[in-house]
Design brief:
- It is built from 6 helices and 3 strands, in the order H-H-H-H-H-E-E-E-H.
- By secondary structure, it is mainly alpha-helical.
- It starts with 8 loop residues before the first helix and ends in an 8-residue tail after the last helix.
- It has one domain.
- Strands 1-2-3 form a 3-stranded antiparallel beta sheet, with helices on one face.
Amino acid sequence: MHRPGKTIPQADFLSRWSKFAAAKKCYFIATASLVSGEELRRYTKRYYAANITALSKGWRPYVKLKFAAFYAHREEISVQTDGILCRNDGLFIPPPLRKVVLKDLHKSHFSIR
């Protein structure tokens, strides 16, 4: 006799739990990077503090409006244990570091200066 998963508390819990329990991971691996991990964490904390708080404590109405672009992708955004803000496999680069990081990423491309 078939019973829907929603009528079986354990099955319903486990099917929903895996969605939230699966830790998202993102990695920042670079050799001789112009931006240190500590610098990235410091600027991330400074520029994305409201977003990080909203992700961990919930999205209040005024935060939803102010950061609508983040709110629209809230299911894809995670905060790593070291304080780095990620979206899927990528990471958010705070505005002051973007130019340096872009230059660093293009180091190996000789035609891009």
